[in-house]
Write a structure and sequence with these properties.
Elements lengths: L4 H13 L2 H8 L3 H15 L4 E4 L2 E4 L1 H22 L2 H4 L3 E7 L1 H6 L1 H11 L3 E7 L2 H9 L5 E5 L7 E15 L13 H6 L1 E5 L4 H10 L7 E6 L2 H9 L3 E6 H9 L4 E2 L8 E9 L6 H14 L7
Parallel strand pairs: 3-4, 3-5, 7-8, 7-9
Antiparallel strand pairs: 1-2, 5-11, 6-9, 6-10, 6-11
Length: 301
């Protein structure tokens, strides 16, 4: 094996940042050393891994093929470093990608517990839609993900963390707000503002309502939940959001939860990780801490 882990790490960093200079900063190398490592790797493999477009670096077909394999190789190398945690305590770096609802309402407590139990574990967090969380884990950009709803990709392991529930809400002065129950015919006539396509909330809501209302009148789509809540509270829109998100607004009478008896929108929040990772002490300690955190707790109203 003629290539080195350093060369693989340089390739992966350039692929991540699209720039030799930014990759050098990330790796704490000089720009010339970074360029040299990439050149050596390309010479060893006999293939160009990037197309140079000014200062930007874009993966070639061969670079795209190498990227997930390089990520796995680097993950295995990190696992070797952390694999002796029984001797010196759990430590190391982990990248965690989380969808919006657990990021806002569960992640702060989880990280606080991890900081207390495993002070030498460093966690890098990004917040994305459930669809993008899945993509990040599949493409080795994140070690562990937390999503809303289901993931059926056989390349990933999924473990339910806790339960949640979606709720349709309206402004207190909306015509539907005073009704004891709301029919699907009325929901079909309403104007909606919803989470963006690809979000876990949107996917669960559409799956639940589509058999009854095949086509909703969707006026706006946003990934920023406070904006959806504000639009709904100050207009005649309806929206559907996790109960965790709207609970404070319902309790302060800024929003009203609508009763739609036939519509069941319970869902799960889950950890996901690549099935081919094998044993990973950092993933295990986060999952275990998360399960202890919500043990005996339900997020359903």
């Amino acid at each position: 094996m003629r290539y080195t882990l350093k060369q693989i790490a340089v390739f992966d960093a350039i692929a991540e940042y699209g720039s030799v200079s930014q990759a050098a900063d990330y790796l704490s190398l000089t720009q010339s050393a970074t360029s040299m490592s990439l050149s050596q790797l390309e010479k060893i493999l006999g293939r160009s891994l990037f197309e140079r477009q000014g200062k930007q670096m874009r993966l070639t077909h061969w670079g795209e093929w190498l990227r997930p394999r390089a990520r796995r190789l680097l993950q295995d190398a990190r696992q070797i470093e952390t694999g002796f945690f029984d001797l010196q305590g759990i430590s190391g770096d982990l990248t965690l990608c989380v969808s919006q609802t657990p990021a806002e309402h569960l992640l702060p407590e989880l990280i606080s517990l991890l900081d207390h139990r495993y002070p030498d574990v460093r966690i890098k967090v990004s917040v994305k839609s459930s669809h993008n969380v899945i993509e990040d884990v599949l493409n080795y950009r994140s070690d562990l993900g937390i999503i809303e709803g289901r993931c059926d990709d056989h390349r990933l392991c999924q473990e339910i963390w806790c339960s949640d529930q979606l709720t349709i809400v309206a402004a207190p002065d909306h015509p539907y707000a005073s009704l004891p129950s709301v029919s699907f015919e009325l929901l079909a006539q309403a104007r909606w503002v919803l989470r963006e396509p690809g979000s876990g909330t949107r996917m669960v809501f559409e799956s639940a309502i589509h058999p009854y209302v095949p086509q909703l009148d969707v006026w706006r789509e946003y990934d920023f939940v406070p904006l959806l809540c504000s639009l709904t509270a100050h207009s005649d829109y309806l929206t559907c959001l996790p109960y965790l998100e709207v609970k404070p607004l319902i309790e302060s009478n800024q929003l009203v939860a609508l009763n739609v008896p036939a519509l069941k929108m319970d869902r799960s929040l889950s950890f996901i990780w690549r099935a081919d990772v094998g044993e990973h002490p950092l993933i295990d300690c986060i999952r275990t801490t998360g399960q202890h955190m919500v043990e005996g707790r339900s997020l359903l109203r």
